[in-house]
Amino acid sequence: MASTSANPIMNSKIWSRLPETLVDRVIAFLPPPAFFDARSVCKRRSNLLISNNFIELYLSVSSSARQRHTWFLFFKHKKLKSYIYNSDRSDHIINHKRREKADKSSSCEAYLFDPNEMKWYKISFGSLIPPGFIW
């Protein structure tokens, strides 16, 4: 089996010379689950999530892309109580207390929902988000 460095298509020397702005533009076209997977490649890609320039690029690309569709992002917050709307009850809102012992590894995670595919994706941020960024 040949190594990837022998294959000119996957030669890392070629791909590493691409301008960062071009790579960012390509990443901006990825669907959200693929974008979150791409964050694990390197620290720079991980930081795209909190980069104002990348967010502006993503918004401009997504508004011009024909095949974009809506995704819903839900953040799990370790300090808040969760509430569920129930139309069958007279008070309509049920308060659910969270467990007292919160797992530190799950204190910064989110859930991404694709309504077109009816699929959920769990996104763990771990230590990638700076303290205080979300809450």
From TrEMBL:
Q: Which InterPro entries match?
A: F-box-like_dom_sf, F-box_dom, SCF_F-box_component
Where does the F-box domain lie?
Answer: 12-61
SUPFAM superfamilies reported for this sequence: F-box domain
Give the protein's recorded name.
Answer: F-box domain-containing protein
Q: What is the originating organism of this protein? A: Papaver nudicaule (Iceland poppy)
